[in-house]
Write a structure and sequence with these properties.
The chain is built from five helices and 13 strands. With about 250 residues, the protein is of the alpha/beta class. The protein starts with a helix and ends with a strand.
C-alpha cells in the first residue's frame, strides 16, 4: 500500500512539472510575440520619425546646399531608413569626398562630410587659368592666381570640367608633388611627357616617374638626400624614373 501511494505521488508531480513546463513555454512565446508586436508599433510611431539633421564638415556646420537634398528623408522612420541611401544622397555634391551617417535616438540623423580640399594648382599649356585639384585629382575650381604649389603641365589636358577626375598619371604627379612640397617646400614642378620634374632649393634637379607609387618616389628621394648629407656631398641630378635611381654629382 505505501508503495502504491509513492508511485501515484511521483506520477502526480511528474505530470504537474510537465504542465508547468508547457505553460512556461506558452508564456514565453506569448511574451515574445507581445514584445515583437509592441516594438513594431512603437518603432513605427511618430516618436522615431526623422525630424532633424546634425550635419558637420571638417570646417564646421554644413551649408544649406548639403542639407537640402537630405530633406527627402524627413518623416521616415529612424530605424528603417537606409543609411547607405542617405550617404549616397549626401554624396551627390561632388565637393563631398566622403560621407558618414549615424542614427541618433530618437529622431536625428548625424552626418559627417569630408569636403574636398584643393592641394595643388595645375597650369596646362592649353588654357590661361589655373586648375585647383584635390589629392584624388578631382578638379575643384578654376582660378587666375593661387597661393598653392603649382605644376606646369607641358601637355594638353582635355575635358576639363569641375568635378571631373584627371587621368592616373596626373594624379600620381599631384600626390608625388604635394608630398614633396610638404617635406621640401618645393613650390613649382613641371609635368613632361614621362616624368614630374622639379628643383630643390639647393639646386638639385629631381625626376619622378608618373607610374610609380608617390610614397615610393618621395621616400627614395628622402633616403638619397639623407645619405648625401651624411657623406657631405650633394648630387646635382636625382633621376627616380628607373628601378635603380640615377644620381649624378657633376
Amino acid at each position: 500500500m505505501p508503495t502504491f501511494n509513492i508511485k501515484r505521488n511521483n506520477n502526480f508531480f511528474s505530470n504537474l512539472q510537465k504542465k508547468i513546463k508547457r505553460l512556461s513555454i506558452i508564456f514565453k512565446i506569448l511574451l515574445s510575440l507581445g514584445i515583437l508586436v509592441g516594438s513594431f508599433f512603437i518603432l513605427r510611431s511618430d516618436l522615431f520619425s526623422i525630424k532633424n539633421f546634425d550635419c558637420k564638415t571638417q570646417y564646421g556646420p554644413c551649408l544649406e546646399e548639403d542639407t537640402e537634398p537630405l530633406k527627402v528623408f524627413l518623416g521616415e522612420n529612424l530605424f528603417s531608413v537606409s543609411v547607405q541611401e542617405v550617404e549616397e544622397t549626401s554624396m551627390q555634391n561632388f565637393m563631398n569626398r566622403k560621407s558618414t551617417v549615424q542614427r541618433v535616438f530618437p529622431n536625428t540623423l548625424a552626418i559627417v562630410l569630408d569636403k574636398r580640399k584643393p592641394l595643388v594648382a595645375l597650369k596646362p599649356q592649353n588654357i590661361d587659368s589655373q586648375i585647383l585639384v584635390d589629392r584624388e585629382g578631382v578638379i575643384v575650381e578654376f582660378t587666375q592666381n593661387s597661393p598653392l604649389p603649382i605644376i606646369i603641365v607641358e601637355r594638353v589636358l582635355k575635358d576639363l570640367v569641375v568635378g571631373k577626375k584627371l587621368d592616373d598619371e596626373i594624379v600620381v604627379a599631384i600626390q608625388s608633388f604635394y608630398l614633396t612640397y610638404k617635406t621640401n617646400n618645393v613650390m613649382q614642378g613641371n609635368i613632361t611627357q614621362d616624368s614630374l620634374v622639379f628643383t630643390l632649393d639647393n639646386l638639385i634637379n629631381v625626376n619622378y616617374s608618373l607610374k610609380q607609387d608617390p610614397k615610393v618616389s618621395v621616400g627614395a628621394l628622402q633616403l638619397i638626400m639623407s645619405r648625401s648629407r651624411i657623406d657631405g656631398k650633394l648630387p646635382k641630378i636625382i633621376d627616380l624614373r628607373y628601378s635603380k635611381p640615377v644620381i649624378r654629382y657633376e
